[in-house]
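Practice problem 4.
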């Protein structure tokens, strides 16, 4: 015997579909833009590699070279 609850999964008075979560207050535009100011994706700085003649990302070692631009032997580790 159930006391005060109808038979089934849902208690009496409970809505069968769930309500969406909503904010209590509207977010101001200035607060939203301040939060989103770091979301922009910047294009990487591409430069011409003088050693290989190809294009590489600036301030990185390209291909099989170390940070100073010297060729790395495959046997080295």
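Answer key:
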């Amino acid at each position: 015997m159930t006391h005060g609850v109808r038979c089934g999964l849902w208690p009496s008075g409970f809505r069968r579909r769930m309500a969406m979560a909503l904010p209590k207050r509207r977010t101001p535009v200035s607060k939203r833009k301040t939060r989103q100011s770091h979301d922009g994706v910047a294009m990487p700085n591409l430069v011409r590699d003088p050693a290989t003649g190809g294009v590489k990302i600036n301030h990185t070692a390209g291909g099989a070279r170390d940070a100073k631009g010297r060729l790395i032997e495959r046997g080295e580790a």
